[in-house]
Specification:
The protein is an alpha/beta fold. The protein has 13 helices and 15 strands. It folds into two domains: 172 residues, 3-Layer(aba) Sandwich (Rossmann fold), CATH 3.40.50.720; 175 residues, Rossmann fold. Helix 10 crosses helix 11. The model has no long low-confidence stretch (mean pLDDT 96). The structure holds nicotinamide-adenine-dinucleotide. The site of nicotinamide-adenine-dinucleotide has 33 residues, from helix 5, helix 6 and strand 8.
Length: 363
């Protein structure tokens, strides 16, 4: 099969869908790769590395899109719709429930569109979303620590403290993938860490993982209010699958924090859990201050570390790409129910229930 990898053109998107190592594996399996010129540059992968791995570098997006299967990172934007055709397999993040124009374009051109974010294992986990939550969770503590520094507007607290001075208090609301990864880094940096989750079994697992290095609290408005008030850094990492995030932290709770404290709302891509975090920010201008508290609410945190994020993403996508390209999508779907869950549009119909429901399509 021919596989095309266009350069990402969304603002500030430096990731790329396949690494040179991924190219090597796909070429070894007998496939031909067309990588658009400089597609990997933002992630630190030069055209020469792709060539060495066996890919052909093509000048234009059109040449990359001409392949049997196109692999991308972000959902196509309008200027890319012209490349859609009925024998194209598109394998990328799609988020169709929030993308009516893209959905329409995929249906009209009868693209076979497989969304990374809806591939789902039998245990309910989303293997192609997990790596980005890992990255964002780990980054949340790194950026939080940085904005606690005085020159960055923070209250001037070092996460670990020093002998004779208290450690910083970090509260993490939501103890799933992002929250657990945030906890790992916060514990590693020596902070006093509290994790709040409303799933008691999850809190038991976290207690087993971290032992006495973290405190766990059953999440409710009273425990959240207490934890927020006394924390230097609060990280929002709640997810209710398929729904907007609940506003668990009220403006009054934020106002109760000390001046110069920091909030990192990782869940902002689903609407955010802080009443005061009312808009998505960008890496160019990541923070704003409300109630004397610094708010960081970047919607694509992994975009700041494209080298790590690209490798983490392709580690997760490559196995599925090999199955689709090796067996053809029909056999790959028949053999792998998790992959079939990724199919969002096929022969002009929506084939993923949550997306069909949003647009009132028959499913
Ligand atoms: P996850 O499903 O692994 O974890 C979510 C956790 O929230 C679960 O443990 C769940 O029990 C808990 N939860 C649900 N309701 C709660 C409540 N009322 N109080 C406390 N906890 C509650 O999800 P995840 O993969 O860790 O993702 C977390 C969020 O991070 C999502 O919104 C995801 O989209 C977002 N995310 C953002 C970025 C970014 O760049 N901003 C990147 C990756 C992921």
């Amino acid at each position: 099969m021919t596989i095309g990898v266009p350069k990402e053109i969304k603002n500030n998107e430096n990731r790329v869908a396949v690494t040179p190592a991924g190219v090597e594996a796909l070429v070894a399996a007998g496939h031909s790769l067309s990588i658009q010129k400089s597609a990997g540059e933002g992630s630190g992968f030069l055209d020469s590395a792709y060539q060495q791995a066996g890919a052909t570098i093509v000048e234009t997006a059109a040449e990359a899109w001409a392949a049997n299967m196109v692999m991308k990172v972000k959902e196509p934007i309008e200027s890319e719709f012209q490349y859609f055709r009925n024998d194209l397999i598109l394998f990328t993040y799609l988020h169709l429930a929030a993308e009516p124009k893209l959905t329409q374009a995929l249906l009209e051109s009868k693209v076979t569109a497989i969304a990374y974010e809806t591939i789902q294992l039998p245990n309910g986990t989303l293997p192609l979303l997990t790596p980005m939550s890992e990255v964002a969770g780990r980054m949340a503590v790194q950026v939080g620590a940085s904005f606690l520094e005085k020159p960055n507007g923070g209250k001037g607290v070092l996460l670990s403290g020093v002998p004779g001075v208290r450690r910083a208090k970090v509260a993490i609301i939501g103890g799933g993938v992002a929250g657990t990864n945030a906890a790992k880094i916060a514990v590693g940096l020596g902070a006093e860490v509290t994790i709040l989750d409303n799933n008691l079994d999850r809190l038991r697992q976290l207690d087993d993982i971290f032992g006495y290095q973290v405190s766990t609290l059953a999440s409710n408005s009273s425990t959240i209010a207490q934890a927020v008030k006394y924390s230097d850094l609060v990280i929002g990492a709640v997810l209710i699958p398929g729904a907007k995030s609940p506003k668990l932290v009220t403006e009054a709770m934020v106002a109760s924090m000390e001046t110069g404290s920091v909030i990192v709302d990782v869940a902002i891509d689903q609407g955010g859990i802080f009443e005061t975090a009312d808009h998505v920010t960008t890496h160019d201008n990541p923070t704003y201050v409300k109630n004397n508290v610094i708010h960081y609410s970047v919607g694509n945190m992994p975009g700041a570390v494209p080298y790590t994020s690209t490798i983490a993403l392709t580690n997760a996508t490559l196995g599925y790409a090999l199955q689709i390209a090796g067996k053809g999508y029909k056999k790959a779907f028949a053999d792998n129910a998790a992959l079939l869950k990724g199919l969002n549009t096929f022969e002009g119909s929506v084939t993923y229930k949550a997306v069909a429901d949003v647009y009132g399509y028959h499913f």
